[in-house]
Every structure is written in C-alpha cells, then in structure tokens.
Amino acid sequence: MAVVFEKPKALTDAPLHYCPGCTHGIVHRLVAEVIDELGIQGETIAVASVGCSVMSYDYFDVDCVQAAHGRAPAVATGVKRSDPSKIVFTYQGDGDLAAIGTAETVHSAARRENITVIFINNAIYGMTGGQMAPTTLPGQVTQTSPYGRDVNTVGYPMKVCELLSGVDGAAYLERVSVHDVAHVRKAKAAIKKAFQNQIDGKGFSLIEVLSTCPTNWGVSPKKALEWIESDMIPYYPLGVYKDIYAEEENK
Amino acid sequence: MGEKVLMKGNEAIAEAAIKAGCRHYFGYPITPQTEVAAYMSKRMPKIGGTFLQAESEVAAINMVIGVSSTGKRVMTSSSSPGVSLKSEGISYLAGCDLPALVVNVQRGGPGLGGIQPSQSDYFQATKGGSHGDYHNIVLAPASVQEMASLTQKGFELADKYRMVSMILADGTLGQMMEPVEIEEVSANQVEKPWALTGTGMKREHNIVNSLYLKPDLLEIKNFERFEKYKVVEENEVMYEEYMVEDADICVVAFGISARVAKNAVNMARAQGIKAGLIRPITLWPFPKKPLFNAAQHCKAFISVEMNMGQMIQDVELAIRCTRPVYLCNRTGGMIPSPDQVLEKIVEVNDGGAK
Amino acid sequence: MSTLNILYAGFGGQGILFSGKFVAYDGLIAGKQVSWLPSYGPEMRGGTANCSVIISDDPIGSPIVEKPDVLVAMNGPSLDKYENEVVSGGKIFVDSALIERKVERTDVDVYYIPSTKIANEKGIPTLANMIITGKMIKEVPELSIDNMDTVLSKIVSARHQDLLEVNKDAVRTGYDYE
Fold first, then answer.
1. Alpha-carbon distance B301 to B294, whole Å?
2. Any CB–CB contact under 8 A between C60 and chain B?
3. Domains in chain A: ranges and CATH
4. pLDDT over threshold 60, residue A33
5. What is the pTM of this model?
6. Cis geometry, peptide bond prior to residue B336 (ω within 30 degrees of 0)
7. Between A41, A57, A61, which is nearest B209 by CB?
C-alpha cells in the first residue's frame, strides 16, 4: 500500500494536548516538515516558551530547552552564541512574545541574532484560560476584558511585524495565517524561508502566524477559522513586512 | 608559580573565569561590578569568546541559561539590584539542574539603595532568593586572590553538582587591588551527556526543562535534588579558623568584614583577651560543625556583618543557641572599623549582655 | 617596618588612584604584602577622591586606612578631613600650591611641596600627583625609588608608553625637591 501521508520525522509520537480546532498542531507540523525537508533535525535546538505551547519540547524531536515566560529569544541567543553551527528556533505565543517578552523580542531582533522565531498570534492567553492578550482586538471579549477591549483604558493591540519592521536588525518578517489550505501552504513557505535564512547566516527572522483558539474564543473550530478571515486579517494584514535581502537585491 | 600582578577584585574574577575556560559572559552595567563586564569586553573577542551586553539583567541570565544548556561554562555578574532581576533565571537554572556562575558584588539596599559595599544580600544568596525549593553554592571571597580562586572553584562545583555557584562579594573586594596569581584550569572535568548539542540523529532528544505538571513527579525531582544538596553539605564546606583553639570569644565574619574582624582579634589578643575568628568561605553550605565545636569552649559569639544581622541567624542555629550571639554591624554601605569590633569583643568579654 | 598605612586624598582627576597604584606596585616588587582601595562612585567625577594603600610584612587585614601613617593631601578639604586621623609621629605631605593653610598638628612631620605649581611650570599639569609622590618616597624610609622604572612600566598602559619618561621625571623632581 502506498503511503500518501505520514507524520514528519521531527515530531515525536507524543499525542498533542492542544484543544480540538486549535491550529497549534498545524504550525507544529509545518515546522517539523520544514526541519525534515532541510535535513537539519540532528542540528536543531528548539526553545519552548510559556503558554499553550509550553510542552512543545515533548513534541519536537530535536534537543529542546524550556524558557521562562517571555525569555525564549534570550535563551536562544545563548544557545546560538554557544554553537553558531546549530539551528535554533523559538516557538512563542502572543502573551509570551509581545507582552512579557517584548524587550527580549525587540533586542534579539536589533542584534540580528541569527535565530528563527515562530510567533503564534491567536489574540488571547490560551493556557491560563482566555485572558486579554497584547494582541486582543479592540472590542474583543475575554475573561479580563469582559466588556470588550476598551482601547481608551487598556490601549491598542501590538502589531509585532509592523513594530519590528522599524528595527534595523530584523532581517525577515512575515505575517501568515493557517485558516485555510491555501494559507497553510503560504505559511509553510514562509517558515521554510525563515529557517533557510538562518542556515544562510542572514539573521533574525520572525514568522507571525495568525492562529485560532476556539476554546477561549468560545466558538466552534469552523467559526474560529472564519473569524481569522473576517476579523483578524483586517487588523493584522498578511504579507512580508521586511526582507532586507530582497530590498538589497531590488536596489 | 607565575608572577603576581596587582589587579582589582572584579578584574581578577573575569580573568580567573577565562582561565577556567569560560568563553561566554552576559552582563549589564551596574556599579560596583562594571569592571567585570569591561574586562570581558576587552578579552573575549581576542580569544574567540562571547561578550554580550544584554538589554537587561533578566535577558542576561536567560542567555546564561541558553549557553549552560549546551554544556559550556558561562557566567554573569551584577550587583544587588541586578541580582534581584536575575533571581527568576536563577530559579530556572536550579529547576533545570544547570551549572552556572553568578557573581554578586554587593551594594547597600533595599531598593536602589546605594553603591557602597554591603553584605545585605546574605539572605537572598543563601536561602534561595527566588521561588521554589533550591539552593545555590555560595562562596564568599575575602581577598582579591580569593576572588580569582573561588571563581574557578565555583565553576568546578557548578559543573560537578549541576548547580549555580554564586560569588558573594562586595564593592570593596570588587574595587580593591591586591597581588594575585591566576592559574589555568581545565574546563572539561565533567561529562555532560544531558547537554543540548543537537541529536546528530544518533541519540534521543535531550530536554532541559523545569516544568513538571504532575505533582508527584515534581516532588520526586525535589527530593532527588535535596539528596544532592546533602552531598554538597557533607563534602564542600570551606572555612578559615584563626586563633579559635583557645578562644573565649569567637568572632564570625565573612568577606571584607572578616578582614576587619581579624584586625580586631589581633588587637584583642594584644590586650590579653582570648578572641578568635571563624570565617565561613562557603556561606551555603554553612560551616555548622566548626561553629558547633567552638561553642564547646567559647563563652560567646559575635557576628560581624555589613547588614542588619543576617548570618547571625545561621550562627545561632549552628551552635543550637547554646551560647549568646551578639551582632556587631554597619549597614547601608558603611564598613565596621576594627575599633568597633574590638569594642564589642571587650564588652562581650566583660560579660556584656548589653 | 611591619605595616605602612598610606592615605592619598584630593580631587577626582588629580591622579590620586594612579599614584596609589604606583606606591602599591612598588611594595609588591619589594616583596611586601600590599593592598590598594579607592573610593568609588560619582564622587570620583570631580569631587573628592581618596585611596588607601597598605604595605606590610604581614598579611593585610582590613584594606581601609582609617589612621594613616602617611597622609598625602592634595586639596584643602582632604587636609581638613584627615589631618586629625594621622597617627602621632606620622607624616603629612601637603600640596602647598592648592592648600594655603598650615598643618596644625605638632606631633607629626609635615612636608610642604607646591607640586601643582611645579607641574604647571614644567608643562606637565596632570602629574602633580607624581611629584608629591616623589617627595613622599624620599621622606618615607620604608619606600624606595630604586624600582621606579620597573613599576612605571607595569602601570603605564601600553597605549601611553610616551608618558613613561614624563612620569619618571615627575617622580624624580619631587624626590629631589628641597
């Protein structure tokens, strides 16, 4: 019987603990497929963060270190500086990367650390049960914004790709989504480019992935996918926000 | 034997670390330890090492975690307020069983405090200092030579026990110069099969982690870690005894306070008072036995500290409160004088329960 | 000698710490135990600076000089602050170009040398510290000028080797000052 579909080698056999309809699983798979395709599994070191993906060290079949909340880019900096021949990536959520870890994110970009950052933006704190995130949309109801996010009192969402595009050190920034097949394909290409950049020594690459959280958004998986398209993408437009090498080539 | 050179304590720490094979340093400027970073920034690029001035103390300690998880010797240094910021990372290092060297060149506190020398982070250093059940090995140098030798010892112990070694110095020791001789020591004394070096597709993936969601597993992990701490307590206690054998009054002091106290002990002896000094070199593990033994013949103890009385609690515990323990202290960046300590010795010798 | 306690005091920028290092290294080369402890912090930037140097045959206890055998005072506030701390029979060196008043103590030996004025006249205004140090070496029997060349070559950084000769000249000038 011909095998038409199999699990990437860079994923372990551990069952994922993610909720039904959560797109973390898709992004895990994309990262693992890219690692397989680039043939870097034996050289890759993952840095897990704090949030729903905290246990990604059990899922990625590569050496892993689990970082404190927000500190993954600093830990990755240490790993990469220790052995620049290794491929080092962080896998972080929006609370981790864009709230408590904003300084580490911005400064690792500013240093053009040669690492790859996979940033899951699902507009909510998932693991702690659905509190307002730095990326929660204006008006969005969460456990800690029960009347909807009021920008007059709690301020505006963080647009990470836009923010980092003003940082000279950032080499590659792209926002993608995984709400349908076509976008999943594009997301994979972006993730692959972010790893290839590291292999080529091009420096800090960050891929922001718009992702679902049906459990904490309080909607069905299907509705969640639709909500990305209807509500998130208008606020967080997809696309390449920075590619310094493409910019150089165009000059 | 090499040639002795005059060096600042902070520089001696940096050079000793390099000679112990440390090639990665992450820091952030803060008085009075900045010379460590400055020295590293000069030397590391010339020997293929990494010097990185991080965006914060928090980032610096997490970079330390990154390097340590790959199995290499790594350090950071700071002064009191900066060490508070590093505390989170220190707990993670403990929880991940990662070795590292953390230097605290103490200044007066709490808060922003001052920049003059202090020993007021004794509790923070020896009682954990961050969240969770854990210990650091805490080494208290009292000379520039010891700033160097205990730095190297700190790396050795950190690797041996997979623990954080902390150098608990103070602004005086960091800023003063004394003759020092620094040896070259090997960085590869301990195998590190747990290190993240990439699987190379030849082994199972290694995971460096402090998360245990199942409480029974976390309990086992903590029990195991404390078994290791017992071994450290049995084997790694270091202290200096000075004229304790026949002493009536036992002065206890560490670091720069111990040097002041030694002057006072000499002055007391010149007056015919039988004073002696026990200087803990490891603050954790604390030298309980020599203190307990001294309590068999000393009628009283004096804890000399540059804080409001922190080590004094460990002295009382070590001697099981069988003798009175008096505090002789300055704080806020002030240093006790030999006269102040002598006065206390005389007073206590005269029966002084003042 | 058993222990010689030296306290240098003056303004930040007068080279107080450098002179102290010079004397400490001299002791080290002579095979003594030595310690050097600066005041540190913002006051160094133009405020008062001082530096404790101890040279001893025995291991040094506290590195802080509270009762100096030798005080080198390079400004008025320093003399005011430390004059009464000097041990009886000790020595005080006064930069008389910057300090107008006389030392009031009668139980110490006092040496007045207008080192800042001499330094300015010689075109080496930053080396008054080394001139007064030369005088101190002359008058303090525990110190010696014999190893001056070696000591200076140790403490003058490689970048500033051009300053070696002027430093020697400054020390020698102070040493020969009557």
1. 9
2. yes
3. 24-250 (3.40.50.970)
4. yes
5. 0.95
6. no
7. A57
